[in-house]
């Protein structure tokens, strides 16, 4: 039921970054569910992680190892290794240890990632048994297979790729992501891997990723549930024949940042388009806020309202539910008579009440579309924020009532 | 699909408080949808109202008129008269004006209440045409009919009643409520009317209602949507032959407060039991918080998580979703290894991880019940809060996708 999400686009290989996929049979026999990634020597690696206090064991290990010049990433789907306590840390590390032995590197240079059911013990033996096969298949052109390998309730793999020229050299940025439920900002149930062959110092790479995530992965929500496992990493292999980026400025820096932002945005929006049970892709734009936070508060109140979401599912321009959500977003001294609301270009609420020009037919026509823009004007200041979300359908309930069974 | 909610209990008449019901045909011809209530001269009236910034026109009028010694309450269902701007105020007042003329009192002594669809103009003519009939039928024993008259998506009317003796005199507290969706604290899409024949000064009555609402109506959530119209009023007619309560102390004060709290709690829980699509009644108890607010933050994070709600619907003890919700509730420095979670008496999470003694069968047995207690121990302090909520079912989506059509 993904909205406007088709086959994977061409995913250009990134020189110095290889991916290998294997089947450990964690939830289903034969399903490719383990992905190993290798970064060329000298790569820099940045990461952003969930802010959930119950962050999973692999997230804890990743955070510890970001300064150890990571060389390998190992991901399993089917089990999140979250809320698993001390045993979780041991099992996550056992997988890293096995991979480290296979490839001959210190365990500190292996980053683990897990996604799937929370609270069940990680099946270490199954995963470890699959690692040699994954390592044997490491190759730069395996992005599409890896995109499938990290899926959980996703219905389609998600990837994005772009290239640009700098001083006659082609620079590539390619990424994959997964996530369809337990999605809300501060990283979703979401794994994202983006690699470039540019060379970037670690601190600048971290800043670029932080900014890119704030404009993309941290602006999407499906059900408002912040996952325990969200992780997004950005790798710069330095294999392209251009000078390394050591300062946050210059033509190459600007072009790379733009390319990474673009890939991150496409990956994040793909997650929403494939949201659990999604039948609509909804953009919520809040303008005229006094500051960023109040724009986000309004946008998320609307995005998380089950009543708005079910109305969108029903293609019902029940705009009263939108204004009700704006009203409880917690803005101090909101002057409701200054609020305007648009569905695409149709003004449905003007000065806090139903717009005189509005007809139900106009609203119904917009709501019937697969992609809908809800634009809210607060007229309190000059700030603006945009987030992306989905509707709430029968299928969402079915998926999440039946998951695990 | 109401959970554990049967026929109305006996609703004892309250001397000095009459109710009259009529049919205005607002949404359905023949449906009784207009209720007039009359408070005996000398009654005191207290009210608590929605905190939604887009609060409806009738709420604005009610708030203005609380100090005008209200004598009449007029309620319509089928139309919320919310987000209707200046016209909304005019139409709400036009209904009050008509009633004032009929009964011969100043318009300031009439409080209007509306519930139903947001954003559509109030059908004043229909309502006004029904008022004479409602007034003609005013009687003290009409509580049950009035309970039906205020319903929207409710499947059952909701009422509660209790009596106690003081110095040989029987004191009565009786109430009705409505609400099934757009329900979350700070008053839900909820109307509540409670009356007693005790005599209580207005300021003390207001405090009693405020406290009672905070323990009942402000501790329930169905979908997290705070409505534009929530209103709860408490009327003291003073017709019982006991001395008036002028101080917040004494045996009568204590007994009355207890009775009002009990009625408010039953009315609030009835709303949850009849929550849209509800198949389960869930109590969430958070203990060991450093302060009340963090207990509430955790309780509401769990109560609002669509993933927890769908798991409850599926009778699936997918406790990982509960800990994930605790983890994103925003508590600073949450030590996850101190967190314990129980389903009824079954310990599912001990010290932040799956309890050693826990078996899936134990969890499944509790989840299969209609009524479930989720108890969370934070071990950060001595505070405790309890809220009540429902699951998220196919039926919830169906009701809210089809409402209006």
TrEMBL record, chains A, B:
InterPro entries: Arg_biosynth_ArgJ (IPR002813), ArgJ-like_dom_sf (IPR016117), ArgJ_beta_C (IPR042195). Keywords: Acyltransferase, Amino-acid biosynthesis, Arginine biosynthesis, Autocatalytic cleavage, Cytoplasm, Multifunctional enzyme, Transferase. The lineage of its organism: Bacteria, Pseudomonadati, Pseudomonadota, Gammaproteobacteria, Pseudomonadales. It catalyses: L-glutamate + acetyl-CoA = N-acetyl-L-glutamate + CoA + H(+); N(2)-acetyl-L-ornithine + L-glutamate = N-acetyl-L-glutamate + L-ornithine. This is Arginine biosynthesis bifunctional protein ArgJ. Belongs to the ArgJ family. GO terms for molecular function: L-glutamate N-acetyltransferase activity, acting on acetyl-L-ornithine as donor. It is an enzyme of class 2 (transferase). It is found in: Cytoplasm. Pfam families: ArgJ. PANTHER family: ARGININE BIOSYNTHESIS BIFUNCTIONAL PROTEIN ARGJ, ARGININE BIOSYNTHESIS BIFUNCTIONAL PROTEIN ARGJ, MITOCHONDRIAL. Pathway: Amino-acid biosynthesis; L-arginine biosynthesis; L-ornithine and N-acetyl-L-glutamate from L-glutamate and N(2)-acetyl-L-ornithine (cyclic): step 1/1; Amino-acid biosynthesis; L-arginine biosynthesis; N(2)-acetyl-L-ornithine from L-glutamate: step 1/4. Its EC number is 2.3.1.35, 2.3.1.1. Heterotetramer of two alpha and two beta chains. The keyword Phosphoprotein does not apply. Its main location: cytoplasm. The record marks 115-116 as: Involved in the stabilization of negative charge on the oxyanion by the formation of the oxyanion hole. It comes from the Bacteria. The record marks 188-189 as: Cleavage. The gene is argJ. The active site is at residue 189. Substrate binds at residues 152, 178, 189, 276, 400, 405. Catalyzes two activities which are involved in the cyclic version of arginine biosynthesis: the synthesis of N-acetylglutamate from glutamate and acetyl-CoA as the acetyl donor, and of ornithine by transacetylation between N(2)-acetylornithine and glutamate.
């Amino acid at each position: 039921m993904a909205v406007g999400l088709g086959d994977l686009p061409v995913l250009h290989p990134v020189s110095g970054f290889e991916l290998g996929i294997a089947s450990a049979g964690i939830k289903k026999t034969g399903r490719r569910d383990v992905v190993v990634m290798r970064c060329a020597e000298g790569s820099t690696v940045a990461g952003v992680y969930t802010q959930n206090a119950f962050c999973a064991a692999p997230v804890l290990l990743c955070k510890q190892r970001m300064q150890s010049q990571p060389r390998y990433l190992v991901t399993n789907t089917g089990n999140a290794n979250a809320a698993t306590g001390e045993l979780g840390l041991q099992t996550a590390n056992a997988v890293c240890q096995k991979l480290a032995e296979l490839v001959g590197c210190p365990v500190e240079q292996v980053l683990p990632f897990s996604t799937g059911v929370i609270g069940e013990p990680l099946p270490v033996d199954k995963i470890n048994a699959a690692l040699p096969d994954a390592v044997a298949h490491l190759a730069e052109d395996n992005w599409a297979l890896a995109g499938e390998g990290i899926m959980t309730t996703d219905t389609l793999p998600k990837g994005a790729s772009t290239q640009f020229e700098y001083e006659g050299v082609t620079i590539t940025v390619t990424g994959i992501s997964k996530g369809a439920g337990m999605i809300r900002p501060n990283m979703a149930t979401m794994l994202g891997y983006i690699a470039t062959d540019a060379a970037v110092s670690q601190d600048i790479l971290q800043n670029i990723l932080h900014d890119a995530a704030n404009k993309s992965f941290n602006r999407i929500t499906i059900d408002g549930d912040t996952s325990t496992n969200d992780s997004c990493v950005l790798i710069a292999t330095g294999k392209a024949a251009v000078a390394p980026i050591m300062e946050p400025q210059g033509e190459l820096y600007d072009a790379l940042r733009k390319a990474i932002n673009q890939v991150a945005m496409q990956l994040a929006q793909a997650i929403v388009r494939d949201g659990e049970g999604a039948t609509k892709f909804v953009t919520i734009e809040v303008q005229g806020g006094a500051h960023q936070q109040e724009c986000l508060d309004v946008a998320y109140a609307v995005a998380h309202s089950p009543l708005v979401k079910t109305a969108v599912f029903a293609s019902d321009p029940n705009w009263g539910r939108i204004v009700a959500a704006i009203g409880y977003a917690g803005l101090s001294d909101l002057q409701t008579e200054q609020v305007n609301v648009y569905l695409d270009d149709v003004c449905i609420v003007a000065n806090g009440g139903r717009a005189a020009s509005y007809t139900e037919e106009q609203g119904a026509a917009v709501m019937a579309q697969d992609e809908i823009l809800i634009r809210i004007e607060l007229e309190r200041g000059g700030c603006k924020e945009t987030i992306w979300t989905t509707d709430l359908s029968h299928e969402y309930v079915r998926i999440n009532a039946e998951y695990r069974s």
